[in-house]
Design brief:
The protein is α+β, with helices and mostly antiparallel strands. It is 30% helix and 44% strand. The protein has a single domain, classed as 2-Layer Sandwich (Alpha-D-Glucose-1,6-Bisphosphate, Chain A, domain 4), CATH 3.30.530.20.
Length: 151
């Protein structure tokens, strides 16, 4: 298994809409239930079952149908796990905070294969997930804008 990760700052100083941990968490919950607007290449996402701590979903990503178990650790982490005859992975989306504010991190543990082909596959996933992190934050901002000013 290889580990890859990407971290982005939640609030860019140039962005007027400031997201809170609650705003980012709400976006991650929406992404777990319907990843299509958040992840390029995601063709379908169907919740099959809701559980006490998450859900089970079926996604179609670049034409491949995959079942994932999604576990919520409220306001901190969403974990996506696949373990079937075609492959296995664990993906975490973590909301953290450092001295500069909130961060959102993607971390994947997956077998990408060996050599140049494995490196290229890991690079594609890292780049794709950077786009997904940015999309998640933009969709969170859109939801905050749509909700309007709080009382």
């Amino acid at each position: 298994m290889r580990v890859i990760s990407q971290t982005v700052r939640v609030n860019d100083p140039a962005e007027p809409v400031r997201l809170t941990r609650d705003d980012v968490w709400a976006a991650l919950e929406r992404k777990a239930a319907d990843a299509v607007p958040f992840v390029a290449g995601m063709d379908a996402c169907t919740v099959l079952e809701r559980t006490a701590d998450g859900l089970v979903r079926e996604v179609v990503f670049h034409g491949e149908r995959v079942r994932e178990r999604v576990v919520f650790r409220p306001k901190a982490r969403v974990t996506f796990t696949r373990d079937d005859e075609q492959g296995a992975w664990v993906i975490h989306n973590d909301i953290d905070e450092d001295e500069d504010g909130l961060t959102l991190t993607f971390r994947a543990e997956r077998d990408f294969g060996e050599g140049a082909e494995g490196e290229a596959a890991a690079g594609r996933m890292r780049a794709g997930y950077l786009l997904a992190l940015r999309a998640t934050l933009e969709l969170a901002r859109e939801a905050v804008r749509a909700a309007g000013p709080s009382a």
